[in-house]
Amino acid sequence: MDLNLNLNLNVNGRPERFAAQPNELLVERLRDGLGLTGTKVGCDTGQCGTCVVRLDGRSVKSCLVLTASAAGSEVTTIEGVAERGGELTGLQEALRQEHGTQCGFCTPGMVMALGELVENTAGGGAPTEPEIREWLTGNLCRCTGYHSVVRGVQRACAPAVEAGAAGREG
Amino acid sequence: MTAVTGETAVTGGTTAVDGATAADTAAVPDTVAVPDATAGPDAAPLRDAIAVEDATAVEDATAVQDAPPAAADVPDEHAVLGRPMDAREDPQLLRGEATYVADIDLPGTAHMAILGSPVAHAKLLSIDTKAAEQMPGVLKVATAADFTDVMPLPCIWIPGGVESHFPPHPYGLPGARPVLTGDAVRHVGDPIAVVVAETPRQAAAALAAISVEYEPLPVVTRADAALAEGAPQLHEAVPGNLNAYWTCGDKDRTDAAIAAAEVTVELDLVNQRTINSPIEPRGAVGSYDASTGEYTLYASTQGPHNHRFLLSALVLGIPFNKLRVIAPTVGGSFGTKGYLYPDMALVLLLSKALGRPVKWVDTRTGLMNSTVQGRDHRQHVTLAGTRDGRITAVRCTSYANLGAYPSTIGPGVATALMGRSITGMYAIDAAFCEVYAAFTNTVSLGAQRGSGRAEAAFLMERLVDRYAGEIGMDPAEVRRRNLVPKEAFPYDNGLGWTYDSGNYRPNFDRAIELSGYADMSARKAEARTRGKRLGVGIATYVAICGVGPSTRMSKEGMLGGTWESANIRVHPTGEVTVTVGSASTGQSHHTVFAMVAADELGIDPDRVQVYEGDTLKAPYGQGTYGSRSYSMAAPAVALTARKIKAKLIKAGAVFLGVPEDKVVYRGGAVHEDGNPENTKSFADLAMAMWYGWGLPPEIEPALDETTHFDPPDFNYPFGTHVAVVEVDELTGETEVVAYTAVDDAGNVGNPKIVHGQIEGSIVHGLGQALMEAAEYDENGILISSDLNHYALPRAADVPFFSLDRTVTPSPHNPLGAKGAGEIATVPPAAAVVNAVVDALSDLGVRHIDMPLTPEKVWRRLQGETQ
Amino acid sequence: MILTEFDYVRPLGLDRALDLLAGPGARVLAGGQSLLPGLRAGTERAGLLVDVRHLDELRGISAADGTLRIGALTTLAELAAHPLVRERAPELAAAARANGDPQVRNLGTAGGNLADRGRPTDLPVAALAAGAEVELAGPGGRTRTGVEEFTAGGVPAGSVLTALLVPAAGPAAAFEKAADRATRYPLCAAAVRITADGPRIAVTGATPRALRLRGVEDRLRGGPYTTEAVLAAFRAEPRELFVPGRGTSAEYLGHLAGVLTARALARAARITA
Q: EC annotation (chain A) (predicted)?
């Protein structure tokens, strides 16, 4: 039985066409099929959050989505957030200033998950510390202890004037 | 005979290994509390050889405010270090551009999967791979029978100075494990066979088609049980499963002090097994070039040079020159990735066999059943003291669980690192520790962030609280009365460590003050109105770091050198490349080593590039472990920069046309003393040295220097942590509501990086206290074998911490640096358990084993005993 | 990766989905947040996945005649944030909010959470406390079933859960949870709704499945809902009602269910006061 399905996916603004098996996970397509290795794999059970991408705008774990089920959708990976070697987004820049990454393995997933939080609260009130911490429930980090990440989000969500005034830490 | 194995010691032979090291080391008498357990005879000249002028003066430790960033356009000397600089690695990491081993995709790569044993202990009767070989895409199925000419992995840190027993290795070295087991399986996950296929899916699918016939053997998972009469035997060469009985300290003196004491307190402690859980699982890519006969290994490793040596000479039996090891970006390690694992050899062997690159990436469950685990001591501990709060003796009997096979350095971690550390910050007249290190049907034991020292601090700090309760004295006051006084340094702790420098009282007082310790009774009363029991727990520590002095380490049973190297090359344009033998696993080495070089040379750090992790490009070094990079590799960088500077002063005399003693090096340039107009910039000097025109014969052209740094002794960072917890009276849930840490890592290069290391370390320690446990069932099955069953701390589990540092430089390296990366993992477990016991003390609770699950605490709230 | 092989179909309408589900080994794929981990672990099997995630007819939240109609494909994130749900069925919104993590809530659906038979989940207790019904579509058309009966039997083979129907009774309701540290699934959870007839109380995790505890309700009718009274009411339940789970004893979980219920009742009562 030929189990291959012909699928379409828009990834980082680029239409992709490919054949995939029904049991292929989105993270496999992204990493192995499309070479977008910024999305990571850190567990087998959907706990670690290193594979988080945006699917039609919402942050999801790409290891808990079938490629077939994502077909027709728009996917944004970490590679679609900033150009290679390019300028960082406000969130990434805030995380950089707070050293919100150490080994960096959980970082792409964190950036993708937190991007949604920052966008959700844009224009409204900044998220509280407990809200930021709760939002990070799906992202495990063993290096930072999360504090610098939380500070990074706080910095990213601070009103623009304040963020500008704070500048670089050093 | 006092041999490290049941075999004879090394027969000479074909490799460069001087096997005599092993036998000599094993024959070194026990280093019980002897002052000569410090560095060897060469230590003094070595100490003189390094420039220590800015580190020898141990100033009063004071809380530090980190200096603001340098503003000057032309940095002065020492204008860079000590300032919080952003990590240059971070933008790449934040954009997801870094290449980890799983991201490496060499042309023609085939994929390997490993069949691990599903049972914990069994004889292997037969392995049938025929069906697997017929599966789609399968290129090769291999078992132990395919690798009969491959040597077992060695163990290179054995319990020092005592008789010890290991599985054999053909060179008479202590053996660890074969690359694939052929006779028996000894833990769940023990590698039996491998499949290489065109895709990872095909390889994984084919594993299921391998049929293995097992003859079940009885299982033992606890160290104490493994030593009991009639326990199942794991290794023929290890009678009674006892790897070693190891001691340190003065037993008679300690026993006498305890017998004569006014007060004694005792505890039975379980320092439970934990799983390091770096978020990146391990992986390896092997590539063999038949044309040149060269092997390349890409692996998530903390020590590429070390792995190159061990793999080439002691496992594969190939020339050292034919193996290159590359550590790409490594996604966290915390101790696990410094070890030699079978997969590293297997990808190389199979790449040669197949003529294609072979790649293996572990799964989380695979990691949990194969990568070294941490802690796992069962202890009976005793403290003696006077009624007025003076500790007179401490004694520890520990059963250490080494797992099924010795890991590369596990036996040393379980003995010396723990045993010699138990007195911590306290001056104790009599101390003794004995460790029974045993093999069991569990995953091999290795280092977990803070290894050995965390277990030591846990027992000591639990005992101190227990003692304070017994004599009715404030635990803070008991600690204060027993701190090693400032004037006692260098301080011999009676167990084999000589603390380099310390000023404990200001550090301790700062933590107590910062935590609001004095106001705790009011906070306790307030919490009770909310149905919460508030508790406060203090834990102090001294954490040996900076491994280290090679001769000294040999006496501790380390079968290898532990020095570190750096090379600096100044390019014709005045840009600088630093290469080091260390290899980052997330500690921003590129940022920090550039700062060290820039600081010494007086140039902008942005002009300094750092490379590490590739044995072809980097000078030798032992890697990143034991918080050693800033006190081992960074000093090598600094000393190398000083060599460059010295050469520039010599050459500057020629270029400026003045005598050498009239040359001033400042801000990266040289000028004539008293005549700043007669100057040559760093870039001009670099170009002049590149051309080499006009140099006298005694000055070689070019600027390219290397230093191999072997310090005179270890360094001993220390600190005081205070945890405040609230225990829910109805559910037993424990919440850490405040956490204060004042650590002393000596002179700090980049406080921003260290701050991050401290924060992460504390959360790691809190994980052990509250939730983490590697649990094996009676059949030796690891229950907590994935992240659905092994809980890691999440962002919402921790509050922001109150952090501060004191600064007591180490005299043992030119930067005055001490270890920092893991030190703050050492005390949190003790601080939290102390806090919870404090919260429940009016119920008569004296101890609760970790992890402090709600039910465990709730049962104690109900008045049940442990 | 998922090693088990299955076929995949994305039907364009519910009728087509029901046709496909009549075949052997066919399973509904909605958010996939528990099915896919199960397929990865090999604890779940499927010959055909019928992906209903894109069926708009199973989406949407509306209110009519004092009842909230919640489409089965409503994501947990939508459920947690929806103003109507937060106002009229706060225990349901809180249960949805407590689920997993933001990424799981973004894909996980109300229907999937209610239908999950593998472990305690968050929504069933809330639905029980709310006195909700589920709407099922099967070969014989649409039927409505009380959640109590539904949690006992699950989704009948060949059927699709299409909607949750919740009496919109106002804010006197609450949900409390003790999450398993590793999975974030409930170690134990309780939901309550205070009605004119007394409290409706449901727990999960401590019991073999999500259950309404009528005995406890009877003992607490008329209040007061003090912690002592609630714990006493739980202690009066037969000991064998409670089961161990996740390395935790039945005794502790039974006690925890009482504590969580007491806290939920206190919160619900405070809202009405």
A: 1.2.7.4
